[in-house]
Amino acid sequence: MMRSKLVAGNWKMHGSLAGNLSLLTAVRQGASDVGAEVAVCVPFPYLEQARSVLSGSKVGWGAQDVSQHAQGAYTGEVSAAMLVDFGCRYVIVGHSERRSYHGESDELVAAKTEAALAAGLTPIVCVGETLEEREANVTDAVVTRQLDAVLARVGAVGMARAVIAYEPVWAIGTGRTATPLQAQEVHALIRARIAQSDATVAAGVCILYGGSMKPNNAAELMSQPDIDGGLIGGASLLAADFLAIAAAG
Ligand code: 13P
Questions:
Q1: pLDDT given at position 127
Q2: How far apart (Å, rounded) are the C-alpha atoms in residues 144 and 186?
Q3: Nearest atom, ligand 1, residue 236 CA
Q4: Most CB contacts within 10 A, which of 11, 123, 150, 212?
Q5: pTM of the prediction?
Q6: Nearest C-alpha to atom 2 of ligand 1 is from which residue?
């Protein structure tokens, strides 16, 4: 099956109104002749700015987290419906920085995925092992456990409307990229695991790689059979680099 490529930026906690304007404008212009789908996931306060600059372009936008709750007394939280109000198409859930710094469990990530789907968003569900886990040869077990929690909650039907991002924690922000073969192995594992629930869904699901993806390694990573694009951190803050990666998709 031909899957379309997606290149999504994760700005993390970076940006300012002034700086974002030039970055978003450049991405909007440069993405128009790119074949891959392109999106940026910005901090909550800048969603309105993303909407204002990117509306009517091919670039989608989204947030980096969402509450598992629909509404209520949850100070500081943001619901999926609120993200829809701001025109979001995507939301990242279960990023390793949320799992490790905010104690997000597999079950919470699954609940957030379900909340995003219920509101009509496309969740970008992050999975990935730490360096210790890779060195202990438990990468497959960790990724399978993280994925299974989501599958158990939303089923193959939900998975069909989600994007998975494999982000080995040791490759995030370190300049140490997984080799194309290392990444491909885990991507194939993810697809095979989903295929145990539904082979058609597995064949169609978009699986991104994230972790020090740069213009000089993007093409080789994204040419792997099960790598359908990238989730880009640092390089998404530089329009030229982000667009070069998108063009390689
Ligand atoms: P870097 O591209 O900066 O390694 O970040 C990857 C990431 O965490 C994207 O979500």
A1: 98
A2: 10
A3: 2
A4: 123
A5: 0.98
A6: 233
Q: How far apart are CA 78 and CA 76, in angstroms?
A: 7
Ligand 1, CB cutoff 6 Å, lining residues: 10, 95, 167, 172-173, 210-213, 231-235
The model's confidence at residue 186, banded by pLDDT at 50, 70 and 90, is very high
Residue 1 has pLDDT above 80, yes or no: no
Distance CA 120, CA 102 (A): 25
Reply yes or no on whether the pLDDT at 136 is more than 70: yes
d(CA 108, CA 20): 31
pLDDT in tens, 64-97: 999 999 999 999 999 999 999 999 999 999 999 9
Among 13, 1, 19, 29, residue whose Cα is nearest residue 243:
29
In the DSSP assignment, the letter for residue 203 is H
- Report the C-alpha gap between 121 and 234 in whole angstroms: 24
Residue 98, both tokens:
């949320």
Q: Which two tokens stand for residue 80?
A: 């999926």
What is the set of active-site residues?
95, 167
- Site to substitute for ligand 1 among 93, 170, 172, most atoms within 8 A of C-beta: 172
Q: Are 208 and 168 in contact (CB under 8 A)?
A: no
